[in-house]
Design brief:
- The chain has about 140 residues and is mostly beta strands.
- It is about 15% helix and about 35% strand.
- It is built from 2 helices and 8 strands; from the N terminus they run H-E-E-E-E-E-E-E-E-H.
- The strands form 2 sheets. Strands 1-4-5-6-7 form a 5-stranded antiparallel beta sheet, with no helix packed on it. It has a 3-stranded antiparallel beta sheet with strand order 2-3-8, with no helix packed on it.
- Strand 6 and strand 7 form a beta hairpin.
- The radius of gyration is 22 Å and the shape is extended.
């Protein structure tokens, strides 16, 4: 039998090593979150709830109350601290799911990850300047 080799880290040391890959996010009313321009589903039963996104290797895990809600395959650039791809969602049955159930339940093949680059979002805002709408029109009468 071989001896196990490794290093012992304190809790603070571990937290420092992994803190760069932890992202607290708040779900929207549909149970989706946004991370680095990627918009994806986490859990419909937790609307407007703070969840923790954790990148470990090539896995992006969404967690709440120490329960894994969903997992996605991702690419994470450790030098730039940036996600470059999110795909292939896996969803777990949890105690947070709505007791009513979903009208159209999602499965991994039907899940959709949206990518909205920040530059595109900023350009669309600039391309359509806000116009003042008339509340009423003055009409001259005789």
């Amino acid at each position: 039998m071989a001896e196990a080799k490794g290093r012992l880290y304190s809790q603070d040391g571990l937290a420092q090593k992994f803190s760069r890959a932890l992202f607290p996010r708040t779900t929207n009313r549909y149970g989706c979150v946004t991370l680095h321009s990627y918009h994806f589903y986490v859990e419909e039963g937790l609307p407007k709830t703070k969840v923790l996104l954790w990148v470990y290797g090539e896995q992006l895990r969404a967690m709440f109350d120490n329960v894994v809600l969903a997992e996605y395959h991702c690419r994470y650039n450790w030098q730039a601290h940036q996600i470059s791809e999110v795909r292939d969602g896996v969803f777990y049955a949890t105690r947070f799911a709505s007791p009513q159930g979903a009208f159209l339940p999602l499965n991994p093949q039907e899940s959709l990850v949206l990518y909205r680059p920040r530059a595109m979002r900023d350009q669309t805002r600039l391309a359509f300047p806000a116009q003042q709408l008339w509340l009423f029109e003055l009409v001259q009468t005789a």
